User: Fold L1 transposable element RRM domain-containing protein from Knipowitschia caucasica.
Amino acid sequence: MFSCCSPAADVDLKLLLCSGKKNNNPAHPDYTVLKELTKSTTLDRFKRAQKRKAPSTTLVSRKERKSHRDDIKMDIGTQILDLKEDISSLRNDTRADIKTLREELTGELAKLSNKQAEATRQMEDMGNTLSDTIDRVAALEHNQQLMTKKCKTLQEKCADFENRSRRCNLRFVGVVEDSEKGNMLTFLPVFIREILGRENFDSPLVIDRAHRSLGPKPASTDRPRSIVACFHYFSDRQKILDLAKSKGKLVYDGRQVHIFPDMTPEVGKMRAAFNDIKRKLRDAGVSYSLFFPAKLVVTVKGERHSFDSPQAAESFYQQHVK
Assistant:
């Protein structure tokens, strides 16, 4: 393909084209060259025409681009201003919201702080109160233990005093009601001599007080009330007990009667707890004694053994007597 780069080339090209107009025969030797030159010339002519038109088109295009650029700048500027206003408004709103939230949070935090301080104060008060209460409870427990010991000691002393006040007393059980005929102090000496033997009493018995046990008078078919007598001399009281024990069964006016030491109900229960083991010891022929208030002494093979509880006495009986 040829290119028209110089005036000489243009002259040659024109000559060839002129000769080519008369030779449109494809069999012509220059037909192909002329055809290519014709195409190239047409293309160059179009390019030159475009170059001639380019300056005005380019100028218009630049103006339009500048106009568009200015419009775009204005739009961007307007949008930036709007955006700045929106951001400023949003910032102000955000600041206001944050300020409001801060104030609310500050108020709530102040309340929480006050509540926490109050709770701390209450906990301290409760701790102090609890500590004081623990100390007071410990002191009360200590005092209660002391009071319990003292109370027990006082109860034991009171029981001992009461039983000592009865050490000269005897209780007569089974004597028919109205046998004394209204005068107990006159009746009892005669009654005792009759059931224990007149020969055993050389001197008269001195009785300070005597009466039936407290309570309503029973019917004639019911069990009579017991008689409690306080002897002036302890020797008389002990002599009567020894004689009653040696004689065994005692009968008055056709009815069996019994003579017991006068003791408090508590001591009576303690002594009654040994009744079963005493019966077993009697059946086994073992000598024993029950001392005041409730202490069982057993003699086995010449050795004395003492027991404060019926369980201990029963265990000894099973191992050494049975």
Notes: The domain at 166-262 is CATH 3.30.70.1820 (Alpha-Beta Plaits).
